[in-house]
Amino acid sequence: MKKILSTMLAAVLTLSLVGCGSSKTNEPTKPTSTDTKVTGNLIGVAMPTQSLQRWNQDGENMKKQLESKGYTVDLQYANNDVNTQIQGIENMITKKCKVIVVASIDGSTLTDVLKKAGENGIKVIAYDRLIMKTDNVDYYATFDNFKVGVIQGQYIETKLGLKDGKGPFNIELFGGSPDDNNATFFFNGAMSILQPYIDNGKLVIGSKQKDFTTIAIQGWDSAKAQARMDNLITSTYAKGTKLDVVLSPNDSLAIGIVASLKNAGYGSTDKPYPVLTGQDCDKPNVKAMIADQQSMSIFKDTRTLATKVVEMVDAVLQGKSAEVNDTKTYDNGKKVVPSFLCDPVYADKNNYKQILVDSGYYKETDLQ
Ligand code: BGC
Asked: What residues are in contact with ligand 1 under a 6 Å CB criterion?
């Protein structure tokens, strides 16, 4: 199964440029860009893993956009291994990178290496995931992580008709990796919408598992999500109890959940797939949406985030302040890191063409 999962996740990437914005609607936002050319500056970009499509796109977009501004880029992936990431950053310090951009694997493990970066006058930007327990992080650019969860919760609310008093429905909850600061934001955002319906009995957690540490999936691992879903089916849904909805924080978990449901015979008229959320709009998941296996996925345009981070790199190298829109939310235990939050939207079977194809993110043929 692992092999099948990794094959499904290994997708061909499509790249182009748009910018970051703050639209309040479910529409991707249009580009903004600056034309400052800077030459001869080495920028380090430390990404977590190549095993998920999104990080490949993030890395490629960052490289492409930085190079187009005349920077030289040292792009490194770490195979989701903390020590490999630390070594990669050590290398970037030795090579005298001017700025290091990090999408951390475990946000709490970089304190020592980033102290060294700080001592060498290197600026640090946290990419997508907050870097914890360090003063040596200058800026943070991400999508509004709480809002990601809110949109997932609202999607469930609308799909089930909860606002109209429909229910009760059986739900199961999944959480992301506990070492990723984003994971609790996603969960808390979703629960801000779902909790009232759990309280009034319209949503029933069949397994009763709702504590974050119990439902969290270490390393955002598809196989672990599949194993947990298998256990939930056996313990709670084997004897005809209907599973109506599964909250999955992202696409890698959704892949594992769908695989488990499929093995248990879901996907027929008698036993349709439950409402299932996701995040990233990875190609296998968009295909799963088209095939009615997954209901929605949050779209976080990786081109947008890269544009924002490149603007931050430009600003810090020119000794200017970078544009931020949040100076309260992201406390890493040492400081509140000035942040720019981009706006997430959702895609589903009804709007994916507009959101993903018309915006140039994917070609229609990528999704066949
Ligand atoms: C990102 C998600 C991603 C997850 C697993 C999170 O930090 O925000 O977009 O799905 O990591 O890679």
From this structure: 52, 54, 128-129, 180, 182, 220, 250, 252, 279-280, 300
User: What is the rounded distance in angstroms from the CA atom of residue 231 to the CA atom of residue 229?
Assistant: 5
CA 57 to ligand 1 center in whole angstroms: 13
CB 289 within 8 A of CB 362: no
Query: What value does the mean pLDDT of the chain take?
Result: 91
State the closest ligand 1 atom to the C-alpha of 142, by its place in the atom list counted from 1. Answer: 8
Q: Could you read off the pLDDT of 317-336 as tens digits, one per residue?
A: 999 999 999 999 999 999 99
Q: In the 8-state DSSP scheme, what is residue 326?
A: B
Side-chain-facing half-sphere of 357: CA atoms under 13 Å: 15
Q: What atom in ligand 1 is closest to the CA of residue 249? A: 10
Max alpha carbon distance in the chain (Å)? 65
Q: Which two tokens stand for residue 355?
A: 């959101």
Amino acid symbol at 147: K
| pTM (two decimals) | 0.90
Beta-bridge partners for 336: 331
Average pLDDT over residues 96-103: 98
Contacts of 77 (CB under 8 A, 6+ apart): 47, 48, 49, 50, 55, 59
Alpha-carbon distance of 176 to 211, in angstroms, equals: 12
